[in-house]
Each structure stands twice: as structure tokens, then as C-alpha cells.
Fold this sequence. Notes:
This protein has 352 residues and is mostly beta strands. It is built from 1 helix and 26 strands. The chain has one helix spanning 3-22, and strands spanning 27-31, 35-40, 59-65, 68-69, 77-78, 85-86, 92-93, 104-107, 124-127, 131-134, 149-151, 154-159, 163-171, 177-186, 192-201, 207-213, 228-232, 237-238, 246-249, 252-255, 265-270, 280-285, 290-296, 302-308, 311-322, 327-338.
Amino acid sequence: xxxxxxxxxxxxxxxxxxxxxxQEHPKVELSNGVxxxxxxxxxxxxxxxxxxxxxxxxxxxxxxxxxxxxxxPFYEKFDPAIADVVVADPIVAGTxxxxxxxxxxxxxxxxxxxGYSDAKPGQPFYKIGVGVLEKPMEEHYSxxxxxxxxxxxxxxxxxxxxxxxxxQRADGGPEHSYIYRKMIRFEKTKPVMILExxxxxxxxxxxxxxxxxxxxxxxxxxxVGPRILLTFAFPPxxxxxxxxxxxxxxxxxxxxxxxxxxxxxxxxxxxxxxxAKDYNFRVENRETGAGVWITGDRPMTKFAxxxxxxxxxxxxxxxxxxEPGQIYRWSYKYEFYETTRxxxxxxxxxxx
Length: 352
């Protein structure tokens, strides 16, 4: 394709993306009388999220429990010219990272995407939850590259007052095709949310991928710092420096000071076993008393922690392997609760 045509396509897409962040996005509300959430619906034209990184289904505008709000956009400005996120004042996110809530990304074990390594430039590959994408002339895959969406797949949505199910059928050829379903449901009269998934392999080749939940937790919209405490089912080990922003205390990670300006905390975490019982951690805002207990029914393969001043994001990974004709299922459970408030305390040694 000539460069001039690529330029026109990119400019038109950027204009549409900017307009998309300013317009009203399709969404629904769920409630069981205890939890109340507003969830954006996937839409290729007017959807809140149309990047090629995260699953389009399950973007949250908010989730409330007893006056506490757990999810909402972590960024303060949207700019499609940004590849990922610029952490400054304001925090600016680009199309592929401007997400909100317990969003998920599927990545192949080699860090690329389904069918990417076998595809030639101009041929299709797949991003589960996004659709069929076109491989450009490039050396390596990047989650922050915005790829041309050849097809978002056949999508459908069914819902009740306290549940919603998204389905996507993607078929770009006989080798790789799939049916992906994701249900968000609230347990009756309980402060519990379940995310249930299934991936059916309808193609000829095996599907071998990892999926992680970014868990953008912006609890009560307060600055991330000593008020935030993470507790694990295992003794976590940080494999990168936490730059003096946080420290490990037994089974907990405690923040030492408020994150400000361009501060970023990122580290992979080790120490978990290959048993699903270790997919088990809590995040609490000790000042407002809001907490969430997150568990999964599959073993974690990796874990990472990312935080900036507006959000703390614990990221558990699991492996999803599906042979042709088979279906793989997994789920996460979020239990929201209130804990003892630690009012007026700001130092890390007072969070225990």
C-alpha cells in the first residue's frame, strides 16, 4: 500500500479515535442490590475501547460497594498519538492502553499474539478478545502498536439485571479460529463478582496463550501510597527494584510514600507455587476501609505489580492451552468488603 494511502488511513483513524473518547459510549448497568456497576459495551464504531491490546469486553466505567468505587479510568487525558502511557501531570494514555477495570490481554508465550509468528506481512493474525488483525512490515510484535483490525469477529451480548455475557467468534482462516465467551455476574445479595471465561478452539492448530488481568484498581480515586496495602497467599519476592516506593513485609507489599508526578512502580513478583490456591490476594485502601479479595481457579504462571499515583494494578497471568475441538474454562472471583479504617495515618509502618 503506498505511503500516502497509509497516511490517510492513519489520519482518519486518529480523528475517529479522538472523537470516540469525547462521545457517549454504549454501556449497561448491573446491580444485585449490593454491588452496582457500569460496564461499557464493545462496539467497533462507538465503543469506549477500540485498541488492539486488551479484550474489548469487560471495560468498567465504575463499580460501587457501600459508597466505595473500585474502578474507573486511571488516566487523566487521552491522546491517540501516545503509544502506551505517559506518566506525568496529567497522566496521558494512548488508544491501546486507555482501559478501565479488570481488563485482560492475551499474549503468546513468546510475547506476540496468536498466529503472528506464522503470518507474513499483509496476512491475518489474531488477538483474542479483539479480533482478526493484519500483520504489517515490522520486526517484532508490540502490544502498544495499533494494528489494522480486519474483523472484530461476530459479537453478541446477552444480559440480565445482575449479569452480562459477551461472546466473540473470530475466523480469519482454517488454521486459527475460536469462540471466546466472557460472563460477568454478581452473586445474589452478596458483594461478590465472578468473571467466567471459555475459549473454544474451532481451528486446525492448537491455541497456546497466556492471559493476564491488568486489574486497574483506582480505589476511591485516592493517590496510591501508604494507604494501599497488598496481601498475598504466599511470600512475594520482587525481582526488580521497587525504587523505594514500596517494600515487602512477609506476605504483604506496603507502600512507603505517595506516588507523585512521573513516579512508576513496576516489578515482576515471584514466590507463588504452581497450585491455583496461590491465585489469592487482597488489595485494601486502609484510609477509606475499602478492600477487594481476588482469587482464581487456575495456577498463576507469572505475576507483576504496576502502580502510578492514580492506580494500583496487580497483574496475575495464567496459561491457556486448547487443542482443536476443545474448550478451556477459567474464572476469577472478586469479593468486595470493608476493613478497619486507618484514619489520618500516612507512614508505611502504620498500615499494619
